[in-house]
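Our consortium's second objective concerns turning raw sequence data into structural hypotheses that experimental partners can test. To show how far this objective has progressed, the report includes one record in full. It was chosen at random from the queue rather than selected for favorable results. The single chain below, 591 residues long, was entered without modification.
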Amino acid sequence: MSALDVILLSAVILLAGAVLVGLVLGARALRRLSGPATRTDVEDPQLTAERERHEQSLASLRTKAEEVSSTVDTAKTAAAAARTEAAAAKAEASAARAEARRVLDTARAEADTVLERAHKQAEQDAEQLRAAARRSGEREAAMLATTTKEHAADVERRAARMDDRERQHSEEVERLTERERRLATAAAELAEREKALQAREVELAEADELRRRELERIAGLTADTARTELVESIEVQAKREAAILVRDIEADARATGEQRARHIVVEAIQRVASEQTAESVVSVLHLPGDEMKGRIIGREGRNIRAFESVTGVNLIIDDTPEAVLLSCFDPVRREIGRLTLEKLVLDGRIHPHRIEEVFESAKQEVERLCQRAAEDALVEVGITEIHPELVTLLGRLRYRTSYGQNVLKHLVETAHIAGIMAAELRLDAPLIKRGAFLHDIGKALTHEVEGSHALIGADLARKYGEAEEVVHAIEAHHNEVQPQTIEAVLTQASDACSGGRPGARRESLEAYVKRLERIEEIAGGKTGVEKVFAMQAGREIRVMVKPDDVDDIGAAVLARDVAKQIEEELTYPGQIRVTVVRESRVTEIAR
């Protein structure tokens, strides 16, 4: 039975119950009305009216009962129709289920076919993706391997630097520990000496008294004479002890001074970052076109002859497209000639008279540039209150070079290095920077005045009122005069650091590699040498020898032979330390 049948049956039952209830109530009302009428024959109007109302009620109930009966019949008919429709719906549902099963079977078959094709296509796509991923993975693996190698090399370099730093730190700690131990030992020795001196003083006092009495008794000496002899004996002993103490202090100073000096120089070089310069004696001027070369040469070469005569610069015109060369060993004159020719090319009017006019203008402009360069250098170094003539001479160094290194930049770099060293030593940094900055001022007049540029620079500094410490630092920086002050020594050291670093000077850079190779060849050619290491830019050589072939005495002889051969065959600034390292090993077998 469906839900619709249940609903219709429930409605019929409720209507039937309502009809029965109405009939029962109507019957009771009739009995109640008919009972009093049998007992009294007199009709009451109220009862009559009440009876009529009940009759009307019964009539309406009968009408409602009939309507309910008709409604029940209609409901039964509707229920029968609903059952018929439900049966038809069941038949349609069965057909729909059968059709759905057929469609589902068809869809499953098509789905299996599509799934099979999809599997095949997916396998093909997966194979292509695997191939592409394999190729991409190989490329990424190659890139990763390259990156890993670079990182490994970087890590190795950092590890080497860290090892060097740790070694330096350990050496510094060992040195400090050794120094503290020596200080403690010296303090203990001083305490013992103090006690011994006190006891000796007591003994000397007693001996002096006895000696005085004995001498007065035996030799007839006076107390003053005896006192004089005692003072002389004590003075001799005090001088001996003072000499021993001075010797210990000097040994300690020699042990720590070199390490401290090396630390200061390395610190100064690390903090000064200067560019690598390489000047040339030839300048190149680019032209707007090759037809400009004919105008520069002029009719029968009169323009080029006038230009070379006025400027003193050789003008080279060759097959180089849209360019000419200016050659001159005087960099200031070469710069004036280059600027003159540049202005002539821009102006377009090139003839002898015009060349002279433009030359004067270019000369004044170069002087202004030199003056400005000198002022900028002074500001960078932090030097004030300098004579104007010295500023002019410093400006000339803007276009002068020394072995390819610009002299003015060299002065600035030297001043910075000297200032850092002075700060580390707690000295007068401005004074030392001033001496280092002016040490090559004589190069501005070397071609005009005879003599060494160091002595010429010292005369100029003395002439224009510089301090005597600055003058001495200038004249002593190449040992024409022996250095007598710390300012002169620091000027020499900073000058050597600036000019001797690799890349600063063209010839030094070329000779640097050759010197290292030759040093390694000299040391490696000796008997018993296992490895050779050139350290500190060739300033120190570490020679590792085989302990079985070279003993301790042979190591000393080898170090002396290598140092002597280096002195005879090579040219180098400063000094080169040769260190021979021999490892001693003792092996025993326990059986």
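The partners drew two points from this record. Residues 316 and 325 are 5 Å apart (CA to CA). Confidence is low (pLDDT under 50) at residues 36-43, 275-279. Both points have been shared with the crystallography group to help prioritize constructs.
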